[in-house]
Amino acid sequence: MRADLFSRTFSTGRLAGLALVALAAAGCKTEKDPDDPTLLGAPPTTAYIGVEYYYNWGAYGGEGILDYSLTNAPAWLALEDTSNKARQGVIMRGVPGLTGGERGLDDLGKTEDIDIVTTDGRMAGFQPFDIEVKHNLVSVEAPEFTEGELLEISAPRGEHCALPDLEPEGAHSASETAAQPTRRVYAKVRLERPSVTRVSIAFQLESDFTCEDPVGAISRECHSADSNMGRAIVGQDIVALGSGSDHPVDEEGNELAYVTYQEGPEGFYDRGVVTLEPGISECYIPLEVIDDRVAEPTEQARLALTEVRDGLASLGNNNAGISTNLAIADNEPMVALRTLNGGTRDTLNVDPEVTDVTSAGYNEEQVYAAILTGEREGQVNVKLTVSEQGSTVGTGDFVIVQAPETLQGLTLDPEPGTNELVFPAGVNEVQFSITAKDYADTAESLHDRLAILVVDVKGQAGLENFARGESDELMTLSFNRQITPLTWTDGFVPTDMATGAQGELYVAGRGSDDVLQVRIYDQEGAQSGSTLELNAGATAAATEVYLALGKRTERVDGRSTTYEELVVAYSDAGEAVVELYRKDGDTGAYGPVFDNYRLVFGSSGNDAVKRVGYQGTNGNLVVAGESDGAWGGQSNSGGIDTFLAVVETIGEKLKLKEVRQEGSTGNDRVAGASTEFSTPMLFGYAPGVVDGNGAVGPFFYSGTADGAVYGIGGDASEQLRHGLYANSTAWLIGDGPWSYSVTEVEEGDNELERTSGAGAGFVLGFTSTGTPKAAFTIPSVESVAVTSLDKGVALGSDVIAAGTLNGALGLLARVTTEKDPELYQNWQKALPQPGVQFLNLANYRDDEIVALVNSDAGPQVLLFSPEGRLLTAPADNP
User: Fold this and answer.
1) Which of 538, 619, 515, 622 is nearest to 578 (CA)?
2) Spatial distance between the Cα atoms of 28 and 15, rounded to a whole number of angstroms
3) Which residue from 184, 197, 615, 747 has the fewest beta carbons nearer than 10 Å?
4) How high is the pLDDT of residue 616?
5) Beta bridge pairs of residue 791
6) Which helix (H) or strand (E) holds 27?
């Protein structure tokens, strides 16, 4: 910008004279007029307390040497006098808080419309700008510490203090206690900008651990108080400088002059001062973590920067102090609890005659392993209890007894208490048993009781030579009360089952009078409530009834209510029938959801229902089946086709929404159906090609609209007997004359490989669009050949498959996609009961495998642990 310095008031005659002179001069002028004085640049808009602010202005123009000045500038800012008067430009600099009167923090704030002016004596140029002065903030950070572990210092940023040497060990004694080794750690202090002044900052260790006792004599009550769990003790877990430690040195062995330590009121070093010299932006506060022998969870303390003793810097925008959390991880030996096959989840039986476990001895039928890892000296104990979150039993409901042979002939110090294990010197694995007492259902829950075993952190707080847990939860145990098979002797023929939200078992079938029924059983195997009769009590001979459970959410007058519902489906007179029932919230009994609770529908031919499902919370019902007719607008492919139907609720009425029909020219069959995918999914077997995809045998498809059918069979000898969708995988279960594997194709879809072999069972996993993901082959179990694999169910991320062996023996197997599975994830068992044929499998809470079977003893429900141990016949456990 430019300003003319001449007066603008002239007489008329004088103005005319000047004009004539100007015209005459113009007539003979050959040079260009000089440019107006102009400033070049855009100075920083932010300055920091105690940090030099510097800007070099450029300038040009004018008829002579330019002069410069500031107007409306803060006191700390000035222009530098220059000896080179011919130089175009000027340096502007200052240190907020220091120059211009050492006003300190009073220089904070924003100054607007500062003007820098340049002039040649006749004309002037000027440029306005603003500057805001901010705090030069201090920050502090620290990595996580581990007792006894050497830290590495992260790479410095900018100019920094000498790095402390963390290798030398120290020692510290709290009060009259014996000295314990310490390991040096550090916190990092940073200035936002290097200061021109020396900055000295006071620091102090703090903790929320509260106790009236002096450090070194803290009582067990203080150690185990809820409010002190996870709180470090300053002076006992961490100090600024150990009582027996040397002053920290740098990597060359020179003492660190930038840090000093001071004793606190309890007589140990818990505070001090760190000093950053001018130009330094990063420095270090060496601290010491005490390597005690007490098992502790990760504990928290704080390093507080309390005051700037010298120099210009700020501890927060209000300069009231800052702090950083210090996390101290333990290094005591860790204990892990495992089943003998390496699992962390199991189910054990409860003897109905056991009501007091205080005198229970070692129980050889329910044995587990405790494994100790990590360095230690001498004996190590561990106290066990149950987690308050998730457990439904107390420590008095079961007892842990260590295997007697691991303790014979030993002098133990200390002696183990209740639910406490001992690892003698040199012993890193011991076995223990668990015996649980009987219990009754409560109004709040019908579920089996659950114990989540954890280290009793409170019980062993402050005690030396105890182990910590490898994780927050060590083992989950379910206490099963149904210890004999559920068997029917009244002529009831079960055909399907499902587990309920409260652990109930729902079984559908036909009574001896051919009336279709649903019976409900509690966790002891006793029938709960009255039998629900279907088909309005009318008979329906030689038909199979299927059931599914679901929850429907309805919103009325702005309020949402969720109902438990039960859907059944069966065939009657060649047509499909669906019935919907709802659980009464007060009585717990099921009744028709509304008057029109029953829907009969069918094709132009005979239809046979094979599965029913309940999809989501919208109340849509899914029916899968087989038909020799044609469904509206579709045609039969020849023989028997599969169909997938969706029934919706319209008002208080069931209505057929849509049906999809797929099949080959032969007699196809349904092997399974699922509502776990975003659209319903059907699994089937076809002796011919389905939908022109070229494959014969197993296939699956999803949705009721026209779409792809994924045929995955090799030939018609490959029998698909069951299918399910779980863990984002379509699982196909059956048997054939092949061995199976999956070949990964770079930049392409995986391929399913078949190699010739003896007959074998298979479990094959696919994406929802038919790409192979996993393949498992089970040719034999315990040297007995597999005849068929008939059913499957998901268990966690794994799959349980069940079938038959030569000699009419049943088999149960678990397969996993884990690359290096433990034994508990990968097992195969032959059942001791003769004549077992699996009708269905269910998963109860990942704690029990529930199997509906036919056997030589008649139809039964058998229970298995997650590792395949038969729970309903303990004496015959495989």
Assistant:
1) 622
2) 21
3) 747
4) 79
5) 802
6) helix 12-28
On whether the CB atoms of residues 213 and 138 are closer than 8 A, the answer is no
H, E, C per residue of 55-117: EEEEEECCCCCCEEEEECCCCCCEECCCCCCCCCEEEEEECCCCCCCCCHHHHCEEEEEEEEE
d(CA 720, CA 735): 7
d(CA 328, CA 825): 35
User: What is the arithmetic mean of pLDDT over 387-411?
Assistant: 91
Say if CB 668 and CB 683 are below 8 A apart.
Answer: no
Residue with tokens 């803060």: 74
Cα–Cα distance between 776 and 428 in angstroms, integer? 36
Give the Cα separation of 448 and 464 in Å (integer): 37
Domain boundaries, the chain: 2-134, 138-329, 334-480, 515-709, 717-878
- Among left, alpha and beta (phi > 0; psi -120 to 50; other), residue 782 is left
Distance in angstroms (rounded) separating the CA atoms of residues 417 and 413: 11
CB burial string 195-222: b at 16+ within 10 A, e below: bbbebbbbbbbbbebebeeebbebeeeb
**In angstroms, how far is CA 303 from the centroid of its own chain?**
30
Place of tokens 């818990």: 270
> Which residue bears the tokens 């002939």?
409
Alpha carbon dihedral 295, 299, 305, 306, in 10-degree steps, equals -90
Hey, how many other C-beta atoms are within 10 angstroms of the C-beta on 331?
20
CA–CA separation, 711 vs 693, rounded Å? 7
Residue 319: closest CA among 151, 573, 135, 540? 135
Tell me if 138-329 shares its fold with 334-480.
yes
**One-letter amino acid for residue 21 of the chain:** V
Please name the residue that has the structure tokens 């340096």.
91
DSSP 8-state symbol, 691 = T
**Most confident stretch, 115-129, 195-209, 750-764:** 195-209
CATH classification code of 138-329: 2.60.40.2030
**Mean pLDDT of the chain, nearest integer:** 91
200-214 per-position pLDDT tens digit: 999 999 999 999 999
Q: Three-class SS of residue 23?
A: helix
pTM of the shown model: 0.83
Q: In whole angstroms, what is the distance from residue 220 CA to residue 610 CA?
A: 64
Closest CA to 399 of 350, 437, 345, 447: 437
| In the predicted structure, residue 743 carries a pLDDT above the cut 70 | yes
User: Among candidates 355, 530, 378, which has minimal Cα distance to 438?
Assistant: 355
- What is the rounded CA–CA span in Å between residue 579 and residue 571? 12
pLDDT reading at 690 higher than 90: no
Classify burial at 249, counting beta carbons within 10 Å of its beta carbon; exposed 0-12, middle 13-18, buried 19 or more: middle
Domain covering 334-480: architecture: Sandwich (2.60)
97, two tokens: 């808080």
Tell me, rounded to whole angstroms, the distance of Cα 803 from its chain centroid: 35
User: What phi and psi values does residue 372 have, to the nearest 5 degrees?
Assistant: -105, 135
Q: What integer pLDDT is reported at residue 833 of this predicted model?
A: 81
340 and 298 in contact (C-beta within 8 Å)?
no
Q: What is the CA radius of gyration of the chain?
A: 41
Helix (H), strand (E), coil (C) string for 334-349: EEEEECCCCCCEEEEE
**pLDDT class of 77 with cuts at 50, 70, 90:** very high
Read off the pLDDT band of 10 (50, 70, 90): very low
CATH number of 2-134: 2.60.40.10
Higher pLDDT: 11 or 371? It is 371
Phi, psi of 227, rounded to the nearest 5 degrees: -70, -15
301-303-308 Cα angle (round to 5): 160
Do the beta carbons of residue 723 and residue 734 sit within 8 Å? no
* Consecutive H or E run containing 601: strand 598-601
The C-alpha angle with vertex 800 and arms to 799 and 805, in degrees rounded to 5, equals 135
